[in-house]
Batch of 2 targets.
Target 1
Amino acid sequence: MRSRPVASQTDAPERPRVNESRAPRVDRNTGVHFPRLYWPSFAAPATIWLLVLFVIPFYVVVSVAFGTTDFFQNPLPVYQPWYWSGATFIDTLHRFTASGDVGFYRPALMRTLIYVPVASFICLVLGYAVAYYVARYGGKRKGLFLILLISPFWISYLMRIYAWQGLLQDDGLINKGLIFIHAIGSPVNWLQGRSITVIMGLVYGYIPYMILPLFGQLDRVDSSLLEAGRDLGASPWQTFKRVTLPQSKQAILAGLIIVSLPMFGDYFTNDLLGSTKTSMFGNLIDTAIQGQGQAPQAASLVLMLMVLLMVPLWYYLRATKRAQEQP
Amino acid sequence: MSRRDFLLRAGGTAIAVPSLAAILAACTKPGTGSGVPGASASEVRDLLSNPARPDNPVTLPVFEDPIPTDMPIEEGATLQLYNWKDYLWPKLYREFEEKYADYGVKIEVTTFNDIAQGIQKVSSGQIAADVFFPDPSWIAKLSVAQLMRPLNHELLPNLATYYWPEFQNPFYDQGWQYTVPYTIYTTGIAYRRDHISDDEVRAYDNPYEILWDPKYTGKVTIYDDYRETIGMSLLKNGIANVNTEDPAEIQTAKDDLLALINATDARLTINGIYSKMPQDEFWVGGSWSGDIVAAAIYYLPKGVPASVLGYWYPQTGGGMIGNDLMVLLQSGNNPRLAHEFLNFMLDKTNSYNNFINFNGYQTPMTSIDPAALVPGVIPPSLDETVVVPKYFDDGRFLLELTPEGTAVWSAAWDEIKAGG
């Protein structure tokens, strides 16, 4: 950034400073003149996008959380911070922190804190294997494999989960299959609020987002490095651990972030495959937003979830920064 | 509504709603004052803190005269209806359009999935409609907020001709200034008779207990609706006032519902009765009478007889009842045509056709002999879905709560939905 003004100074050192700031910038390499706002204007679409679709809506959410409700108990956002009331926010927080029955939101939070890491980890293990296979052994068919991986997305998520409902029913294929191989004696009620079903649903829904970044990274690992590792006497496992894995660390982190952040807010997987027994954080928000007069509570929950999500995000950013600092 | 119109309106409201609120909010602290032009804060408070009950009939405030009888029918008008999803037989729209073809009338329908959503859209101005289909618990608020048009009785002769006297002067709208009835229903227990016999259901001291029976684990559904489900738990626990605001009674009902979910893995659904029970996914559940009739008429797989479905409602009275209404909204542009539509829907043939051909919900017409509905219209196994006038003498109406009461009920529901 600093080099351009310096360049124009060297071009016309005698020019007064006032005019200089208005003068068109000159690209040192090409000699092309650019208006002053030329380069910053490139950031405008993203800035406007963020402002209109994130910053302003976020302020509305805050204003709803600390606002009130009208006559029909519709949310009445309060936009002036000096009128904000934290009562609903504190009451809502209390539902997590209070002891005994009053803290009735806590089980849902605990479930979320278990389901999401477990599901993300399963995504990682399964996704890594798939991405590794495609990257290393896909050969000419890499493109085909990728298309096949993405192809389930051509069908709506809702339709796919409905299909799972059919598979998991008492008389569905899963139960029939398990009974056929004598793994179970009588049908299992998979859809009656079982953690394993919800975790499976989360893995199923989000695993492609894990595979794609992992593939992108693993595909770029130079195979000559692996050969060098083997030449130097490392076993296949040692090569993987000391060559491949360190090179894919950033992709692993990115994949984990990409799948776990939306999982934390997911409510429809549990809606469609679970019950209130497996309610997650997202379901708390959903219940509140649909309840009469509870929009401030829903907005408070959204803010709390954002704070919660900053922890993994902060770790990711720190790890990325550290990786960049390394030579 | 065309796609383009929809996008324009959706975009318009998205921008208009927050900014309008912001402008209003900028003047005074939001939430103070009555929030309603033309009504003082104390008037509003009185109406909200003394909601209508059968023993506390309410005459709603009227802020203007009904339209004159000699007002001409609007020409080339598009009548906008705002209704529940799948709640009105589409053939009737066409018949209405044909009847008023000389005036070039068209009907457009917008739907909502639950009444809270419907009220939210109407009250925030996101939906402009001529005719709206709320239930009695919202009427006081809609009237005070001046969102409804008063009715001209001379233009609605069918009400007096065909309808039960109960609905000619209802307690929630004395003198029917704003409302006419649409449907009536009861809330009881629906069950699969191929798994549970009629006698089994009725053998419980209090048949609501069947929902709590671990024998049916995995096969129980209750409505994902806080008033209906907590109300049913109140009745199961012998609390007859289903509009109670007593925190201790609500807690009893809530704890018992948590116990129910724990004992039977019950699932909260809206389509559990009319769509999933015919598929044999659920065997027993709390049910609106109209839902199980609709299940029998439309949703059973081919080859499965309607006799697999059963319904229990306390024949001695004291069960939950309800009704839906039709009202005219101020936001509609065709008040005269809207009156014609109301009278059309109140017609004995149209109303009956809507019931038996499409939505399964009975209408409170004197021309319907409840005893004659079985077996021609309603299968014999569902004979207890028939609504008779005497249910309205001592039935338990789910009615408007005070804002404080709503908060108690909502908190209990939050706990149930959050899971133990």
Target 2
Amino acid sequence: MTDQTSSEYKELAWQGLWKNNPGLVQLLGLCPLLAVTSTVTNALGLGLATLLVLVSSNATVSFIRLWVPKEIRIPIFVLIIAAFVTCVQLLMNAFTYGLYQSLGIFLPLIVTNCVIIGRAEAYASKNPIKQASFDGLMMGTGFMLVLLILGVIRELLGQGTLFDGADLLLGDWAASLRIEVFHFDSKFLLAILPPGAFFAMGFIIAAKNAIDSKIAARKPKVENKTIERVRVNFDAQ
Amino acid sequence: MLNSVSKNAKVLALFAIISTAIVGMVNEATKGRIAAQEQAQLLKVLHSIIPPKLHNNDIYQDCKIIADPLLGKEKQTAYLAKYNDKPIAVALTATAPDGYNGNINLIVAINVNGSISGVRVLKHQETPGLGDKVEMRKSPWISSFSGKPLPDENDSQWAVSKDGGMFDQFTGATITPRAVVKAVKKVALYFKAHQKTLFNAGESCRPQVDELTQENVESNND
């Protein structure tokens, strides 16, 4: 029993972080993904907000899944998600005021992020709370990691810095986190503007696919060595 | 059939009530802190352009609402800095309508002795990496206004250097600094025209000052 659940959690983590990553594979929530990743701080802020909403909404949807009539489940999911997003927005306005301002419209737009309603409908509404929350955590983390990678690439190319404005998210002490990697007078504008985000995103997806196909290419050979009789299969190919 | 519809409506209503109640509670809990954050942010900006040493009134409360085509289409706010009730400086918000990408909201502090105390950009949508150098966070350009004497109507020096003036433009962006320079000039002209009446009482921007803060202001003035 415990083996089964632990392998289930492993599978959820694998799906959320890599195989079915909401940013790279499902390509959900592209609008905030591309719009706010001009700096690492913005990316981290939006990633954390999305993660928080995703975990809470998955847990709540799973909690109420037995009482909600099938016909009206979608409006109820949307209600729950909107309520959580508004709460997160209010909390960020109160505690991370500067970041709240620099994220602007993309914070309330988390409501329309398809990752959240997608996970509520596809997973949380059919599974117990623990698994649903874990699924939210993994999907949210996967999404946040993509945001972060994009943020690092774009801030590095566009400004030559990392963690610029981290004090907006983490408080005044974090101003010292800012790293000036290299300095140039005229910035590489393309990286900061939305087209740069599309290019960077394309390269990241390509890299993921390349890694996947490399793994896939390696796997059969390993199996050939361990199990001799698979050769029959090999001939058939 | 009708039964299930009414049941669904009830469930939906129940969820609407619960979520609204939760949002309401969070709003109630964070309201004070959000207002405090906004005030702190504004005070930080005000103190960066009017040194806090120079005045001893509560500049956040001592403000009035003004409207003038020189300051832009919208209603603007004037924050009055006084030392023992003597006018020291005033910070005026203004809108530059001709930014590269829409309005640029500014706050301009002017000393009563006739010089610019400081300028900051409050809000803008200029191109990141080019026009956004008007932000203090990105470039010190905006501080080149500090200490400059107020310009006249036909001051040819009060322009970006591309137009033969004394303010640099940025590489690749002339429109944004030009809009800012022009807006600051208009604010200066407004100040010159209204200097005498500006410190008189007017429509306050904080209509409901509760007694506690009022007392604070009075004790500050002592």
